[in-house]
């Protein structure tokens, strides 16, 4: 059994072509893999002002920033870690709490729902409400809550806040009260009202 010169030429040409194409193909697939889907941005009218909604479907994070003249806050909804963080600029403080996925709109539908719930100028009407009670527990290590929450709360005094019906605030056996006049209200995209209330343990 033997190969003719023509067969050897074809084999050599195929090998050389493969050697030439391999780096190019590797670079191509690397570029395709590294292409990042651009976040979705929406400007949503809320009351007399507006809020900026940013959704990153790859990291499963939504960010809402209020741009009204009377208040300023920013909330990160991390659907991957299951945590919410809110930075209240006026108080120079951050609150972190677990996400209630029953109440919270799904990441895939939050932009559409926000657009559908645009209200008449000057009105704020939300369809869902959730109340968090702020504990005395300060959070010093932000790394486990995701990079977006870490960036939001870094350098700020940060407290853990618990949903009202949990009523434990990390202290088993203690009854928890809060002063309704101490609550700070966030109206998120005309979809969700979030209250952060100071705890009073007795």
Proportion of residues in β-strands = 35-45%
Q: What is the count of β-strands?
A: 11
Q: H/E series, N to C? A: HEEEEEEHEHEEEE
Largest sheet: 11 strands, mixed
What are the segments in which pLDDT stays under 50 over at least 5 consecutive residues?
none
Can you count the helices?
A: 3
Structure write-up:
The chain has three helices and eleven strands; from the N terminus they run H-E-E-E-E-E-E-H-E-H-E-E-E-E. It has helices spanning 5-34, 110-116, 147-153, and strands at 40-46, 49-56, 61-66, 73-78, 83-88, 93-98, 128-138, 157-163, 176-178, 184-188, 192-201. Strands 1, 2, 3, 4, 5, 6, 7, 8, 9, 10 and 11 form an eleven-stranded mixed beta sheet that branches. A hairpin with a 2-residue loop joins strand 1 (40-46) and strand 2. The longest helix is centred in the first third of the chain and has 30 residues, at 5-34. It is globular, with a radius of gyration of 26 Å.
């Amino acid at each position: 059994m033997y190969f003719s010169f023509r067969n050897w030429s074809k084999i050599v040409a195929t090998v050389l072509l493969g050697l030439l194409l391999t780096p190019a193909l590797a670079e191509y697939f690397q570029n395709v893999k590294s292409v990042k889907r651009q976040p979705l941005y929406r400007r949503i009218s809320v009351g007399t002002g507006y809020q900026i909604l940013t959704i990153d479907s790859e990291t499963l994070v939504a960010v809402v920033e209020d741009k009204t003249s009377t208040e300023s806050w920013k909330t990160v909804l991390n659907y991957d870690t299951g945590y919410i963080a809110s930075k209240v600029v006026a108080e120079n403080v951050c609150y972190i709490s677990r996400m209630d996925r029953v109440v919270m709109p799904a990441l895939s539908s939050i932009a559409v729902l926000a657009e559908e719930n645009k209200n008449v100028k000057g009105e704020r009407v939300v369809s869902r409400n959730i109340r968090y009670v702020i504990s005395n527990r300060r959070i010093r290590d932000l790394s486990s809550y995701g990079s977006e929450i870490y960036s939001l709360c870094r350098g700020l005094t940060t407290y853990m806040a618990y949903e009202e019906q949990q009523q434990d605030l990390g202290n088993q056996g203690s009854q928890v009260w809060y002063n309704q006049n101490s609550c700070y209200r966030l109206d998120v995209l005309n979809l969700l009202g979030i209250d952060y209330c100071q705890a009073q343990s007795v």
